[in-house]
Structures are given as structure tokens and as C-alpha cells.
Amino acid sequence: MAIAPITGMLRRGLLTDLSIAVGLGFAMANTFWYGFHVPRTVARDNYYRKLEEERAARQKA
């Protein structure tokens, strides 16, 4: 066999690296989603809600 099977130390290192990568990826995705995306979406929605309320108030007057 040209390539030796993954065993022992290499397997543990591979699992550790994959676990760390997936964990950090998940953490960074949550940081982006709840730290940037959600607040910007709420700010956008509030802006358009305010514009709509102003437009409705002008039409009633």
C-alpha cells in the first residue's frame, strides 16, 4: 500500500483539528449572526416602520 492508513496519533490530531475548526466556525457564525446581522436587520425594520408611520400620518391629515 502506497499510503499508510490513518492510525493512532495522526487520527487523534485530525479529530482534534476538525473539532476545533468546527467549533470555531460555529462560534464565529454566531458572532456574525447575533452581533451584526440581527441588529442591522432590526435597525432596518425600525427605519422602514418609522417611514411607513410618517407616510400614514401624512395621508390622514
TrEMBL record:
Q: Where in the cell is it found?
A: Mitochondrion inner membrane
* CDD domains registered for this protein in UniProt: CcO_VIIa_fungal
Does the record carry Kinase as a key word?
no
Q: Which InterPro entries match?
A: Cyt_c_oxidase_su7a_fun
GO MF annotation, one:
oxidoreductase activity
* TM ranges: 18-36
Q: Its membrane topology, per UniProt?
A: Single-pass membrane protein
Q: In which pathway does it act?
A: Energy metabolism; oxidative phosphorylation
Statement: the UniProt record of this protein carries the keyword Membrane: yes
Domain of life according to the entry: Eukaryota
Keywords of the record, alphabetical order, are: Membrane, Mitochondrion, Mitochondrion inner membrane, Oxidoreductase, Transmembrane, Transmembrane helix
Choose any GO biological process term that the UniProt entry carries and state it. mitochondrial electron transport, cytochrome c to oxygen
Q: Which GO terms describe its cellular component?
A: mitochondrial inner membrane
Q: Which family does it belong to?
A: Belongs to the fungal cytochrome c oxidase subunit 7a family.
Primary role: Component of the cytochrome c oxidase, the last enzyme in the mitochondrial electron transport chain which drives oxidative phosphorylation.
Q: Any idea what this protein is called? A: Cytochrome c oxidase subunit 9, mitochondrial
Q: Which organism is it from?
A: Thermothielavioides terrestris (strain ATCC 38088 / NRRL 8126)
